[in-house]
Write a structure and sequence with these properties.
Layout lengths: L4 H25 L3 H5 L2 E9 L3 E4 H11 L3 E16 L2 E14 L6 E16 L2 E17 L37
Parallel strand pairs: 1-6
Antiparallel strand pairs: 1-2, 3-4, 4-5, 5-6
InterPro entries: NTF2-like_dom_sf, SnoaL-like
Pfam family, one: SnoaL_4
Protein name: DUF4440 domain-containing protein
Length: about 180
């Protein structure tokens, strides 16, 4: 069998880029700021509208400031489109984002359908974000929040939480060798 080396390289790059995009979602939702920081080039920018536009440290500072008000944070990736050119790439990443924010009188659900417009480059043999820009295609707000865990399919299940209080924390930590 003849192996098409160029096609194989594109497939590997696409897989690594998809891993980067998914790692972003987990880092934001679990408030893992060190992991998030490591996904970007040091001089990268992230444009999230009026929430934050600028460098990665500014974006992380805004996430940290918002953390006490975030009851639910879930970023979901759907369609991914990558244009890979050697050690650089561009991406249009479709996403569905679900948030519940604490409000003065009641919680508020914000559901966003949008896309990330990204540029990527290899950094120390790893793909990283060079620029990330959010495009909001639609958004819904429910006030008060409509979250309800009373149905038998959700009643009694573990409850997801934003940040480090989520039941998944530790799931990807390697087990310690016996003693």
């Amino acid at each position: 069998m003849v192996v098409d080396e160029a096609r194989l390289a594109r497939m590997l790059a696409r897989d690594e880029l998809l891993e980067l995009v998914n790692s972003y979602c987990r880092a934001v939702d679990r408030a893992d700021y060190e992991a998030l920081r490591n996904l970007y080039h040091p001089d990268a920018t992230d444009a999230h509208g009026s929430f934050s536009t600028g460098g990665v440290e500014q974006f992380i500072a805004q996430l940290q400031a918002a953390e006490p008000y975030v009851r639910v944070s879930q970023h979901n990736i759907t369609t991914t489109n990558f244009a890979i050119e050697g050690e650089t790439a561009r991406g249009e990443i479709y996403c569905l984002v679900f948030h519940t924010f604490a409000g003065p009188e009641h919680d508020l659900d914000v559901i966003i359908g949008g896309r990330y417009l990204d540029t990527y480059a290899k950094h120390d043999s790893r793909w990283k974000f060079g620029r990330r820009t959010i495009v909001a295609d639609w958004a819904y707000q429910n006030a008060p929040s409509q979250v309800n865990f009373g149905h038998p399919s959700t009643r009694g299940s573990l409850r997801g939480k934003p940040g480090q209080a989520d039941p998944s924390i530790g799931l990807f930590t390697p087990p310690r060798a016996p003693g």
